[in-house]
Amino acid sequence: MDITTDGPTLVLRGDLDVRCTPQVRSALYDHLAEHPHVVADLTDVGSVDLTALRVLAMASRTAAREGHHLTLRGCGPAVRRMLHLSHLIRVVDVEREPATA
Questions:
Q1: Residue spans per domain, the chain
Q2: How many CA atoms lie within 13 A of 79 on its CB side?
Q3: pTM to 2 decimals?
Q4: Topology of domain 11-94, per CATH?
């Protein structure tokens, strides 16, 4: 998992799974401490597992309790499918995809 920052945006690349959850959790909470609204860009995430999604959901809830906000951007089909199957789609804010003409 490669994590880079671009202002309030965290860009995640690679497979988002149990092996990288400590790294992702740390990056999310550190970034939320610095920015009131953080965007986690998952455009380049190839696969995701339930443990990693739970990290995102918990960070979202924690941010809301502290008056901050976490938005997921660029959720591909695999990420969206897991969010729906796990019902975590109800907990996280997923940025809507722009309409195509």
A1: 11-94
A2: 26
A3: 0.90
A4: Transcription Regulator spoIIAA (3.30.750)
